[in-house]
Amino acid sequence: MPAQIEKAMVLAAGRGTRMRSLTDEKPKPLIEVKNRPLIDRIVDKIVAYGITQGVVNVCYLGDMIKADLSKRTDIALTFSEEEEALETGGGVKKVLPLLGEKPFFVLNSDPLWTEESPSLDDMARAFDETKEDILLLLWPKERVFGHDGKGDYYLENGRPRRRRPEEDSAPYVYAGAQILNPVIFKDAPDGKFSLNVLYDKAEKAGRLAAVVGVGDWYHVGTPEALALAEKRVKE
């Protein structure tokens, strides 16, 4: 039975140092492609799915992000301010009381993707909380632009497996969107930590799943990647 996802969190506390001078006076989530901030494009996808309540964590130049998103009237957003960035896992754990006891979306604020079908809908249809605690959105490397990594995951018997250090490359990139069941945070560390810790925990328990996106995915992580996205993305 498809999951009924009612809430979402957007991770927007990072510094974005690889963007160099572009983020000296503007946080990375407010970098624009085709005159629209990256974070607004992500929130657009959340709203299109049907979510009306969300949480956004902020740290570096967070007031600018709050000012931008506070203009929106299509979703009620609560902001979680972090004096020091808590990384992905710590940021989510801090606001669990706001996200409730049901599975929820967590999305990075800076990827950009085009899609042939709504990826969040595909994820919700695939997620079964009786069988998995985490579902990741993955993207085939051949449809990924502006990303120079080695890939993150293989799919084996329909389940994702993280690339091992001795493996040169993996065919799928983690695309910055996921569904998390809050039960996965039981025994999670306090303070700053990466969600990778929980991915590995779920994988080991056989409770990590994935959906593969269809379309083009852009990692707008450097000025060069931003220029590529500006050139390739069509409205």
Could you provide a short overview of the structure?
This protein has helices spanning 38-49, 62-69, 87-94, 96-99, 119-126, 196-204, 223-232; strands at residues 7-12, 32-33, 36-37, 53-58, 76-81, 104-108, 111-113, 134-140, 144-145, 153-156, 159-162, 172-180, 208-212, 217-219. It has 235 residues and is an alpha/beta fold. It has one domain: Spore Coat Polysaccharide Biosynthesis Protein SpsA, Chain A, CATH 3.90.550.
Keywords:
235 residues; alpha/beta; Spore Coat Polysaccharide Biosynthesis Protein SpsA, Chain A; 3-stranded mixed β-sheet; 7 helices; 14 strands
Can you walk through the features of this model?
The protein has 235 residues and is α/β, with parallel strands linked by helices. The protein has one domain: Alpha-Beta Complex (Spore Coat Polysaccharide Biosynthesis Protein SpsA, Chain A). Helices cover 25% and strands 27% of the residues. It is built from 7 helices and 14 strands. The chain has helices at 38-49, 62-69, 87-94, 96-99, 119-126, 196-204, 223-232, and strands at residues 7-12, 32-33, 36-37, 53-58, 76-81, 104-108, 111-113, 134-140, 144-145, 153-156, 159-162, 172-180, 208-212, 217-219. The strands form 4 sheets. Strands 5-4-1-6-12-8-13 form a 7-stranded mixed beta sheet, sandwiched between helices. The chain is globular and about 45 Å long. The mean pLDDT is 94.
